[in-house]
Every structure is written in C-alpha cells, then in structure tokens.
Amino acid sequence: MSRSLAGTQGGLDRIDVIMIDAGNIAAILLAAGQSRRFGADDKLLAELDGEPLGLHVARRMVELAAGRLIAVCSSAEGPLAHELGAAGFEIVSNPYPERGLSHSLAKGIKLAAEGGAEAALVCLADMPFVSIGHLRALLAQFDPENTPVVASDRDGTAMPPALFARSVFDRLQQGQGDQGGRALLAAATRAAAGEGELADIDLPEDLLRQR
C-alpha cells in the first residue's frame, strides 16, 4: 500500500507526497545478458572491489527491503545464481539470452505478477554503482495512477533502474528483443541520479577504470 503524507504551505496549499512501501514491490534483477562486448568471460563474474560485478546492485536491492527479490539468470545453476540465491533472490532461468532484454524482463515480470506486488523495480546487473538513495528516490516519485512509471535519468535519457506499476505488467510481458519497456520509459517520470551512478560496464576497460 502507498503512504500519503499531507502538509500545508503558507497555511493554504495542501501538498501530498505519495510513496510506495518497499515491502509492496518486487525488485527484479536482470542478469542473463550475453556480454558479447566484454569478450569470452562472463562480465557479471568479473571482480569489482572484491566481489562479482553482478552482486553490487543486488546488495542495494537487498538493502531496500523489497517484499520480493527476483533475479533472471542465464542458468539457475551458475555461480552468480548461487550467490544471488544465498542473498535471498528467487532465481528465474532464461536459457535464451539471445532473445534480448525483453525476454528476461518478461520472465521476471511474470513471476512478480503471480504475487501481490503493487509495482516492480527493474535493475540491470551490469550497473554496479546505483545507490540505495537513488532506488529510494524512484519509490518516492511513484504514484500508481499519476506516475505509474518512474525511470532513472542520464543526460536526458530515461533508463533503468525503473519502477513500473502493476497496471503495466501486461505490456512489459509483450516486448521483443532489447525493446522491453522502452515505450513506457519514454513517457516516464524521471529521477536524476548522482554523478556516475548510472554508468554500466560493457567493456573490460570500463571495469579497469574503476579499479
């Protein structure tokens, strides 16, 4: 359930701030990409600050205390899936990452829809610098009726992490290729992040610059 906090400004104007409780959302980590640009190695297992790259944003999702944690991995038996399972994530297997991001997104949303989640927070495993503060900022701007999609903003581009109301779950399951949620993001309310928070790791040199 969302919480509404009411106040006054100058004794005249009523201000309502609606924030969804983290316990009422499903947090979905997309971690089944092919990492073609990174080379032969699985980039999500590459070490960053002493642990696999793919665990960094996962830690922030755990800290958020979402009601449900879901991770879409290329294999439920892989090392990253085992790490995520130990952290409290339900693992969904996507053995066809070549079908694009939308295929992984649809699998995660399907599982979220089967429960009672009011919304789904979607994060990408190759974005290790997203802060807990930014995730909370997305929740703070959410309103299931007036702002059903809240996206992160990087240089004027709407992108994950993004929060989607249950009312758009069906649309999220119908995307194809790497277009999952793109149309919804285009019209989303946006939340700016701190410097460098929305950087992703595509190439080995991207990772080396962070070490």
Automatic annotation (TrEMBL):
Keyword Magnesium set for record: yes
Entry keyword Transferase: yes
GO MF term set: nucleotidyltransferase activity
CDD domains: GT_2_like_f
Pfam (any one): NTP_transf_3
InterPro entries assigned: MobA-like_NTP_Trfase, Nucleotide-diphossugar_trans
Domain (MobA-like NTP transferase) ranges: 27-188
Keyword field: Magnesium, Transferase
PANTHER family documented for this protein: MOLYBDENUM COFACTOR CYTIDYLYLTRANSFERASE
Protein's UniProt name: Nucleotidyltransferase family protein
